[in-house]
Design goal:
With about 300 residues, this protein is mainly alpha-helical. The protein is about 55% helix and about 0% strand. The protein has a two-stranded parallel ribbon. Keywords: Membrane, Transmembrane, Transmembrane helix.
């Protein structure tokens, strides 16, 4: 039964409390006797916090959004400002624009003319980034560069304020890290690894398809990764019902599985294990958007 009609979604708050406890335990306690374990558990906490930030930007777990956002600031990954994640992700939820290289901020495709203009070394990098192994190894760096480049190309007061807030709220995280046994280099590795884990989820969340409703995947995974991603592996269900809290998504999917698969044209995988087996070193999609040909794409790209 959902807590959505109540003031508090206790399950989300419980996950949030455990996440910060794991982060603190890894940084202050585990790092004193096992640096590899500290890096791993810090990365897991960082990835889990990102999933919680996703819940928050959709209005969970409290009815007071200012308090929701206060609980997930700052970003433990130190890379993506929460405000920019919120704004770009909500723009991404305009399903008619999904995968569009210009109008979907989370698209991994390039328009044909942009792809053609790249030097060969960049094309090689993007092709590697389109395998799951590449997305995990170099994807965080490629994604961060593209994210920051887009913000610098379209400056605005809102963007500047989001980055300023990020810098200010990162100060206490950096201070805590400096007070702990974990060295800064190890924390940066953990932050990178945390974002790398999230790339498993986003790797094939959306595909190029003529119908926007058929662009979003369902991964029927119920294991540790599904929990780490707070059931966002049922991504088509989330896009159709973004107001539903994470813990209600599996039951909602089971109750309407045929309807969801009819809507997304059976874009489905049984597990993340299947995705690893199929796409660890083999790309699922081309880098160039297959439905946006150079000869047909006459729109002006962003400045």
């Amino acid at each position: 039964m959902s807590d959505r009609n109540n003031t508090v979604e206790w399950r989300t708050l419980a996950v949030m409390a455990v996440t910060y406890a794991v982060w603190g335990g890894a940084v202050f306690w585990m790092s004193a006797w096992s640096m590899p374990l500290a890096v791993i558990f810090t990365a897991l906490a960082i990835a889990q916090q990102s999933s919680l930030q996703h819940e928050v930007l959709h209005g969970h777990p409290l009815r007071w959004q200012w308090l929701n956002e206060l609980m997930v600031r700052p970003s433990l990954n130190l890379l993506i400002p929460y405000g920019r994640f919120r704004d770009t992700h909500l723009a991404h939820h305009r399903d008619a624009n999904l995968t569009d290289p210009y109008d979907d901020p989370e698209s991994n495709f390039l328009a044909g003319r942009d792809w053609a203009a790249l030097p060969e070394w960049a094309k090689l990098l993007y092709r590697a980034n389109n395998t799951l192994a590449g997305r995990m190894l170099i994807g965080p760096a490629v994604g961060q560069w593209a994210f920051m480049r887009a913000d610098m190309k379209t400056p605005s007061r809102r963007i500047a304020m989001s980055w300023l807030a990020h810098v200010v709220t990162a100060v206490p995280v950096i201070w805590l890290v400096l007070q702990s046994p974990i060295p800064p280099w190890a924390y940066l590795i953990a932050a990178y690894l945390g974002v790398s884990l999230l790339k498993i989820r986003t790797f094939l969340e959306h595909r190029a398809h003529e119908q926007s409703r058929a662009r979003t995947v369902i991964v029927e995974d119920r294991g540790p990764l599904a929990f780490l991603f707070l059931n966002n592996n049922l991504h088509a269900v989330h896009h159709m019902h973004p107001q539903v809290p994470w813990y209600d998504l599996p039951a909602l999917y089971r109750s309407g599985k045929d309807r969801f698969l009819a809507c997304n044209d059976s874009y489905i995988y049984p597990s993340y294990g299947t995705i690893f087996a199929r796409h660890l070193v083999r790309a699922k999609d081309p880098v160039e958007h297959p439905l946006m040909h150079r000869a047909l794409d006459d729109r002006t790209p962003p400045a």
